[in-house]
From TrEMBL:
One of its GO terms (cellular component) is membrane. This is Lipoma HMGIC fusion partner-like 2 protein. Signal peptide: none annotated. Gene3D superfamilies: 1.20.140.150. It comes from Batillaria attramentaria. PANTHER family: LHFPL TETRASPAN SUBFAMILY MEMBER 2 PROTEIN, LIPOMA HMGIC FUSION PARTNER-LIKE PROTEIN. Pfam families: L_HMGIC_fpl. Residues 54-84 are annotated as: Disordered. Residues 54-70 have a biased composition (Polar residues). It is found in: Membrane.
Length: 263
């Protein structure tokens, strides 16, 4: 006979398990891991530098610089707020995506453009840092494990053992492994700050574990909180297992109840 057992601890563990998975997923897929230095709306120095290099390579040395390019306007240290009545903004960079402002053409309002910059996982380190590739793999493994624990958490309402072991303790073990994968991803991630991609957002002096003019965005901290929550869920899984096999639950089972709710 199937018994549906719900306790405060098991319900808390289930909700936190789902929350930790959603937090890790939201953090990894959002483009707000790094916040770049302030610049004008429009084509940022990230793209203008590429335009300048392409122009230099394809035209004679006397070819003029693009008319809308002013190095002073795109220097990391030249702006802190606004100048000439024009607001500044800070582009953001994620593990595989980025956000920046587009031009304001005539009456079109300024809007933010977000998209992935990864077209191939085997892109060179300058375009897609190898450290970020490794971090993305670790976060992906953690996400798969956490998704499995979310499914197990829902099944734990009526299934309390798997392969002769408690579904709670098995899920807690998997959550701790997922947390370790997340820690590896968080530790490896700053090693990619020395790539040319990051220098376009943070300045030429950025390097591994040195973000120069950038600062960490909310996605990084969300991932940290989600990682800590993984370990908290691993601990709570032991309490959840004990709560579903308490004397109160056994008494409810002996009374013939199929739906058992214990505070």
């Amino acid at each position: 006979m199937c018994y549906i057992i719900i306790t405060c601890r098991s319900m808390l563990w289930t909700l936190l398990s789902i929350t930790s998975f959603m937090m890790i997923l939201a953090a990894v897929t959002s483009p707000h891991w790094l916040v770049g230095y302030a610049r004008h709306h429009g084509v940022s120095s990230i793209h203008l530098q590429g335009m300048k290099n392409d122009t230099t390579a394809s035209q004679p040395a006397s070819a003029p610089t693009p008319t809308n390019y002013n190095p002073a306007d795109h220097s990391p240290d030249s702006h802190d707020g606004s100048e000439d009545g024009e607001d500044l903004y800070r582009p953001t960079l994620g593990i595989f995506n980025r956000c920046h402002k587009l031009h304001q053409f005539q009456f079109l309002s300024k809007r933010e453009n977000c998209a992935t910059f990864v077209t191939d996982f085997l892109l060179p380190d300058a375009q897609f840092p190898d450290a970020w590739k490794a971090a993305l793999v670790f976060f992906g493994l953690a996400g798969v494990l956490l998704l499995g624990t979310c499914i197990a958490a829902v099944l734990s309402l009526c299934v309390r053992s798997m392969c002769g072991k408690s579904i709670f303790t098995l899920s807690g073990l998997v959550q701790s492994i997922a947390g370790l994968f997340c820690i590896l991803g968080l530790v490896i991630y700053p090693a990619g700050w020395g790539s040319d991609k990051v220098k376009g957002y943070c300045g030429q002096f950025s390097g591994p574990f040195d973000m120069d003019n950038c600062y960490l965005g909310w996605s990084f901290f969300l991932c940290v909180v989600g990682t800590l929550l993984c370990f908290l869920c691993a601990v709570l899984s032991i309490k959840a297992d004990a709560s579903t096999s308490s004397h109160k639950v056994e008494e409810e089972v002996l009374e013939g109840k199929n739906l058992i709710c214990v505070l």
